[in-house]
Specification:
Rossmann fold, 3 domains, transcription cis-regulatory region binding (chains A, B), 434 Repressor (Amino-terminal Domain), 6-stranded parallel beta sheet, Lambda_DNA-bd_dom_sf (chains A, B), 12 strands, alpha/beta, elongated, homodimer, 4-stranded parallel beta sheet
Chain lengths: 357, 357
């Protein structure tokens, strides 16, 4: 049987182009497609992904692992949608398949088997946390040296790359903005501290308060699960503490929108009685009444960089141009206070000022 | 080597449960997981997805084919997000992988090769149209008798099942509501007529007008591509025809939101000067100012049914309980005027009244 290289040579294209044509993926010019098809025909070459994957030990698929949360439509959340779009665009260009896998957050997940059974060549892990079972599953990957990247969760573990955002700086900017406007009793509706991104936001909030000689008041710390519903439910507890509050930070826009809705139902006007700042700069943040002051996070770019990181690893170019470029930008950024592991990339965040605060 | 059946018998569970445990997917009780792992250990059974797939001719993956539109983040659109969530939940339960594949809408797509090369066991096709190259790609599947389902696009071709929604009835209800409120010069901002769902909406609109002795005025028919930006761009043409208009239907909420935004920039108040009705009942529709009157479409359910249809086909139960139940409900519904192929399922739509009309 002819090889991919022979087909590429006869057609005058790259081997990657041959793969894309044969797998029917990627933006391919009709003329290129015809040249490759003609060369493959002439050489009797037929790509059998499974057979060829078996031979070379590769599936051509990248696993994207999502937490499975019953009754929550992950694709409908801005967070996962943007990250998946960034991942999807990179894999599409590279001719890889994107295999979506769901993980039960309570159970130990056998990532290593996914590679052993050759269902995936690399894994991108979304929505992971510090919970022991979950961390242990992920650490096993690093211990085996398998290509992977954790998205928006820092483990600070050698051999386990992470692409996230500087949520410490993001929450710091939001709290600083409220403090500069004269607010002093700023509550925080955060997500579970098991996520490093929640913990980082808390740290930025704490740091801004500390610079003003304040410290977080435990009575005005609230917790949700990043859903709109949990924000609406938290509105009850926030309302009970209203006298102790003159501002509220929320760890994402969905919780902010839910909280504002719940507060409005209790007769509390935002921003007149209680200024609120969201987080994410999601599509919804500019559509709500009032439009949300929020923190922009480049989630699409986060997905792109995570996918590029495993692509570089798979093509044996982890020290190549693309990887180095990213690492240098990130290293410069890291100088700014946080202490991620060498492999970690933290993207910058930006305060977006609208009318909710 | 031991078989999956032997492991299942020793562990006292179903073969499907063994697969879910060995593939690390699905919600599995810890106790069950341990029993299966112990039985597999004892029998020396190790699932190698690629090898076992090669032997039985199955990959364990279902292909979900999306159109690739450069610079459009498909995951961020309510339409694709909801359908994918429905598909994902069913495949997760069944222990199948969801392999996302992108299709270039301009090129012929070789679906049949996807099966021949065993990358997928079945295909779900989203965002397909009547364009000749695209239809020819899809028809080849039906001709080969391969398991597949087309989502929200009717081809009325034997052997090619489709799960969609009754957009004729949805657009009819929206136009009827405007007519009942006394509006007579109702414009329509539709998507490309190459999609059967656009054509069905137009037909519902036409039918409602006809019942009132009116017919669609070509001067107030507008076309977008279902993006918010295209709605905003269409606002120019709509503004130019404002004297000929006393109402506007839009084929989705995103175009409606863009059009309202573009009209507002030109000093046209919605609904005071021009009432507008959207379509989809997306998350955004209740957040905008004014909240959109719109048509609810059960996209999540659409994804579920499409996935269940190929699951039933793969387990050889296409005449089984689940399939028949669905088909009967659909058949009853079909009695209501539209004429889909026998395999087509059209879900009901519902008018949601808010403040934009």
């Amino acid at each position: 049987m002819a090889t991919r290289r022979e087909v590429a040579e006869l057609a005058g294209v790259s081997e990657a182009t041959v793969s894309r044509v044969m797998n029917g993926v990627g933006p391919i010019k009709e003329e290129t497609r015809r040249k490759v098809a003609a060369a493959a025909d002439r050489l009797g070459y037929q790509l059998n992904a499974l057979a060829s994957g078996f031979a070379k030990g590769r599936s051509g698929n990248i696993g994207v692992v999502l937490p499975h949360v019953p009754k929550v439509r992950l694709f409908s959340t801005y967070y996962f949608s943007e990250i998946l779009s960034g991942i999807g665009d990179v894999l599409h260009q590279a001719g890889y398949g994107l295999l979506l896998l769901y993980r039960n957050p309570q159970a130990r997940y056998d990532y290593v088997s996914l590679y052993r059974t050759r269902r995936v060549d690399a894994c991108l892990i979304l929505g992971a946390s510090d919970l022991p079972e979950e961390a242990a599953s992920v650490f096993a990957l690093a211990d085996e040296g398998l290509p992977c990247c954790v998205v928006d969760q820092r483990y600070a573990r050698p051999g386990l790359p992470c692409v996230g955002a500087d949520h410490r700086a993001g929450a710091y900017a939001a709290a600083r903005y409220m403090l500069d406007a004269g607010h002093r009793r700023i509550g925080f509706l955060n997500g579970s501290p098991h996520y490093s991104n929640s913990a980082d936001r808390y740290e930025g909030y704490r740091q801004a308060l500390a610079e003003t000689g304040l410290s977080p008041d435990p009575a005005i710390q609230f917790e949700g699960n990043y859903s709109r519903k949990s924000g609406q439910e938290a509105a009850g507890a926030i309302f009970d503490r209203l006298e102790a509050l003159d501002g509220l930070l929320c760890a994402n826009d969905r919780m902010a929108i839910g909280a504002i809705q719940g507060l409005r139902e209790r007769g509390v006007a935002v921003p007149e009685r209680l200024p609120v700042i969201g987080y994410d700069n999601s599509d919804a943040s500019s559509l709500t009444d009032p439009p949300l002051t929020t923190v922009e996070v480049p989630f699409y770019e986060m997905g792109r960089l995570a996918a590029e990181s495993v692509m570089a690893r798979l093509s044996g170019e982890s020290g190549g141009s693309s990887g180095v470029e990213v690492a240098e930008g990130a290293a410069a950024y890291h100088a700014n206070g946080s202490k991620p592991a060498a492999e970690d990339i933290l993207l910058p965040t930006q305060l977006i000022i609208r009318r909710s605060c």
